[in-house]
């Protein structure tokens, strides 16, 4: 057996093998139906082959000296990588009493199934699919230890033995799929949305409606006991461990920080008293559950609120948490009330991992880093650089449950990348809706949106290669149908081509990449640059369709409002602006303040410094102290200088941007405010001419002297093809913007395209 550090022979083996076997060989079978793996010695061991191994089934001429370095795994259901490009990410993690198969942790997300009717069966399917996809350790959404700790009345809790059986449904499913799962214990504290909320002190959170009741000394002891009791119930339910939620501004975090803990008893005052609460929870939990049970502690590494913890305090707590009995230290960034983005699309990838690296030398237990890590290459680099021992990826597992398996198989290009849009996950969570995913509408709907191989392959025509059309074409082809995808444009993408041009929305490139890869792999006939008519889709001699199924996904056209002077030369469409096809002046009025209007305002006021790509620029813009010299890690934000003077106008009298995403709208408003954009609601447009835009605001006539007027006043469905087909006696499927043109809703479009293809 070769051990870590013995690289000479092992490197020769791997290098030779890389030349011999094509990239992407994921399931080389032996004569016995086992699977073969060659690993670099520095990420594990290379062992002798089992007796009877036949390397000839690899389909390559393997040199004789390689025969000593096969490892056969006869029972592996999906195969294992022959040569991995991610040796650190896929390396086992030894916890002493158990070993995790790799360094991928699926981070906690509340998905709404915790409270839904029949939710535990659906959660079982949801988590089991991620377990089959290779996740090393799954952490559930937060489960409260008592009624006070619930997020809202009826919120999920585990405080009684009668509730154990439901959780056993989930753990059994995950274990049957070969996975490991821990349950997060989360007390909402002053972030709860009910009048029984509690906290260390009666200090209202800026994002909550009620003042919390201060916990008495007896209440604190009872709450600790409740955490311990919930951990024991989780153990009885079959969980492999628990995560104790100590970050993001919830109850435990509130005890730690002096700004929210103004007590004078043994639970408040000096730092040693303020951290007594989390330490007692971890210590007593370890005593109760025994040595062979995973305890993860979620540590707030960077509060991002004024008066938050200092770096020395965080490092002290980390060491004390380890001493109290934690198995793994997971790291959290930012309180929910923080006015600094931490996981939105505009946050650079892995932007906050620098702070996790600061705790690596302070503890000996594994440390987990997180936030905006969405591909295996990035995760591998972070581990190789010693930033952390494990990578937490929550939303990426919504986007693609097979993330780990695809990386291990050498096919990372097949990963459906999380774009951090929040539209179907966090926005849904905070609106008390079921979580899903914009790029993967099956997430949390595995038992409802079932994609099975077809029993009868049909000829399918999809017209329109925007998000709805691409999703429909890919899903239909995955099920075994013969698919042709048409688009009059020269390339696929539709409205996503516009979205990705907006600063901070570059991640849409990943969605386009994914669809492009899948369309090619699945053999879809992609015919771009070809406008298609109803006549071409119908067999003229028979009057019958050339295809068994026709899907119209022809998208939208901009709506032109009825405003005097709307045809003035200064008036342009948002499409032409985002494509860079028109000159835009220094003074601009944007008519319409929906999502498109905000995107155009962002596009026109961006200074070109690429804050979403450069962490240093991003942190300066938002006031993050990367020296961590200030408590909470916050400093004054640097001002931005916009290259244009912009007015963002809307007819509605409500707050401008009020209809934007619940978890990201505040970010867009803050960015535009920082750039000096004037946002005005309640506007009546009375005309456009050489003088600019004539408006009435609260009944007062005004003229906005601008050079360019950008129309973002909605869309109309493009249905000419649909109408022609119906006139020919054919009833096609109508999806995406061609069906409902409101805004540019990629979430609805992809979901609808997938659902239609699932029903063929």
Written description of the protein model:
This protein is α/β, with parallel strands linked by helices and 760 residues long. The chain has 4 domains: 8-72, no CATH class; 93-364 and 422-429, Aldolase class I (TIM Barrel), CATH 3.20.20.70; 459-557 and 717-758, 3-Layer(aba) Sandwich (Rossmann fold), CATH 3.40.50.720; 560-607 and 642-713, FAD/NAD(P)-binding domain, CATH 3.50.50. The protein has 23 helices and 31 strands. The strands form 9 sheets. It has an 8-stranded parallel barrel, surrounded by 6 helices. Strands 17-16-15-20-31 form a 5-stranded parallel beta sheet, covered by helices on one side. Strand 5 (104-106), helix 2 and strand 6 form a beta-alpha-beta unit. Helix 2 packs parallel to helix 3.
The gist of it:
With 760 residues, the protein is of the alpha/beta class.
List keywords for this structure.
Rossmann fold, 760 residues, disordered N terminus, 4 domains, globular, alpha/beta
List the helices and strands and how they pair.
Blueprint: H1 8-20, E1 36-37, E2 71-72, E3 93-94, E4 99-100, E5 104-106, H2 119-132, E6 137-143, H3 164-176, E7 181-185, E8 198-199, E9 213-214, H4 217-236, E10 241-246, H5 251-256, H6 271-274, H7 276-289, E11 294-302, H8 311-324, E12 328-333, H9 353-357, E13 367-369, H10 376-384, E14 390-392, H11 395-399, H12 403-408, H13 426-429, E15 459-463, H14 467-478, E16 482-487, H15 496-499, H16 508-521, E17 525-528, H17 534-537, E18 538-539, E19 544-545, E20 549-552, E21 556-558, E22 571-573, H18 574-578, E23 587-591, H19 595-605, H20 615-622, E24 645-649, H21 665-674, E25 678-680, E26 683-689, E27 692-697, E28 700-704, E29 708-711, E30 715-717, H22 720-727, E31 733-734, H23 746-758
Parallel strand pairs: 5-6, 5-14, 6-7, 7-10, 8-9, 10-11, 11-12, 12-13, 13-14, 15-16, 15-20, 16-17, 20-31, 22-29, 23-24, 23-29, 24-25
Antiparallel strand pairs: 1-2, 3-4, 18-19, 21-30, 26-27, 27-28
């Amino acid at each position: 057996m070769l051990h870590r550090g013995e690289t000479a022979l092992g490197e020769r083996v791997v290098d030779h093998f890389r030349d011999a076997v094509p990239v992407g060989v994921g399931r080389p079978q032996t004569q016995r139906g086992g699977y073969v793996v060659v690993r670099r010695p520095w990420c594990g061991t290379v062992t002798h082959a089992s007796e009877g191994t036949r390397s000839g089934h690899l389909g390559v001429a393997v040199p004789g000296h390689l025969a000593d370095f096969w490892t056969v795994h006869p029972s592996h259901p999906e195969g294992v990588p022959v040569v991995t490009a991610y040796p650190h990410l896929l390396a086992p993690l030894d916890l002493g009493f158990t070993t995790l198969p790799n360094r991928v942790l699926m981070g906690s997300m509340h998905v709404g199934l915790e409270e839904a009717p029949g939710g535990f069966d659906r959660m079982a399917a949801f988590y089991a699919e991620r377990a089959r996809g290779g996740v090393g350790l799954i952490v559930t959404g937060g489960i409260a230890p008592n009624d006070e700790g619930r997020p809202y009345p009826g919120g999920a809790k585990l405080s009684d033995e009668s509730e154990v059986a439901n959780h056993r449904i989930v753990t059994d499913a995950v274990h049957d799929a070969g996975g490991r799962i821990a349950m997060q214990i989360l007390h909402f504290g002053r972030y709860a949305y009910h009048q029984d909320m509690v906290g260390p002190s009666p200090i209202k959170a800026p994002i909550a409606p009620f003042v919390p009741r201060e916990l008495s000394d007896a209440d604190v002891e009872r709450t600790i006991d409740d955490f311990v009791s919930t951990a024991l119930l989780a153990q009885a339910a079959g969980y492999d461990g628990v995560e104790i939620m100590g970050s993001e501004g919830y109850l435990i975090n509130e005890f730690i920080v002096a700004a929210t803990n103004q007590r004078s008893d043994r639970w408040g005052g000096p730092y040693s008293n303020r951290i007594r609460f989390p330490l007692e929870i971890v210590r007593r939990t370890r005593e109760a559950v025994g040595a062979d049970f995973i305890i993860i502690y979620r540590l707030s590494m960077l509060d991002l609120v004024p008066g938050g913890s200092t770096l020395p305090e965080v490092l002290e707590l980390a060491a004390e948490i380890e001493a109290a009995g934690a198995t793994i230290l997971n790291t959290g960034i930012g309180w929910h009330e923080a006015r600094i983005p931490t996981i939105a699309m505009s946050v650079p990838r892995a932007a906050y991992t620098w702070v996790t690296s600061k705790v690596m030398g302070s503890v000996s237990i594994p440390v987990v880093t997180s936030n905006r890590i969405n591909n295996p290459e990035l995760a591998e680099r972070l581990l190789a650089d010693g930033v952390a021992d494990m990578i937490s990826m929550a939303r990426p597992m919504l986007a693609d449950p097979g993330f780990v398996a695809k990386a291990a198989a050498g096919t990372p290009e097949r990963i459906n990348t999380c774009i951090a849009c929040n539209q179907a996950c966090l926005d849904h969570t905070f609106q008390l809706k079921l979580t899903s995913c914009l790029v993967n509408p099956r997430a949390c709907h595995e038992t409802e949106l079932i994609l099975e191989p077809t029993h009868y392959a049909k000829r399918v025509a999809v017209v329109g290669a925007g998000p709805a059309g691409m999703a429909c074409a890919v899903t239909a082809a995955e099920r075994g149908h013969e698919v042709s995808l048409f688009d009059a444009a020269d390339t696929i993408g539709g409205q996503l081509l516009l979205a990705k041009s907006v600063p901070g929305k570059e991640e849409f490139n990943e969605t386009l990449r994914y669809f492009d890869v899948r369309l090619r792999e699945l053999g879809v006939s992609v015919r771009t640059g070809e406008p298609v008519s109803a006549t071409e889709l119908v067999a003229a001699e028979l009057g019958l369709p050339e295809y068994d199924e026709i899907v119209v996904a022809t998208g939208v056209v901009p709506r032109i409002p009825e405003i005097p002077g709307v045809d003035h030369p200064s008036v342009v469409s948002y499409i032409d602006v985002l494509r860079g096809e028109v000159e835009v002046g220094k003074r601009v009025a944007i008519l319409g303040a929906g999502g498109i209007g905000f995107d155009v305002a962002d596009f026109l006021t961006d200074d070109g410094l690429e804050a979403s790509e450069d962490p240093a620029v991003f942190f300066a813009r938002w006031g993050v102290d990367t020296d961590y010299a200030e408590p909470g890690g916050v400093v004054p934000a640097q001002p931005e200088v916009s290259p244009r003077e912009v007015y963002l106008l809307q007819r509605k009298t409500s707050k401008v941007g009020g209809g934007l995403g619940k978890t990201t709208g505040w970010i867009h408003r803050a960015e535009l405010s920082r750039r000096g954009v004037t946002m005005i609601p309640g506007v009546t447009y009375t005309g456009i001419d050489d003088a600019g835009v004539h408006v009435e605001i609260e009944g007062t006539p005004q003229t906005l002297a601008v050079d360019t007027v950008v129309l973002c006043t909605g869309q109309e469905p493009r249905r000419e093809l649909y109408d022609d087909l119906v006139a020919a006696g054919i009833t096609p499927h109508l999806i995406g913007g061609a069906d409902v043109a409101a805004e540019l809703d990629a979430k609805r479009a992809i979901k609808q395209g997938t659902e239609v293809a699932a029903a063929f």
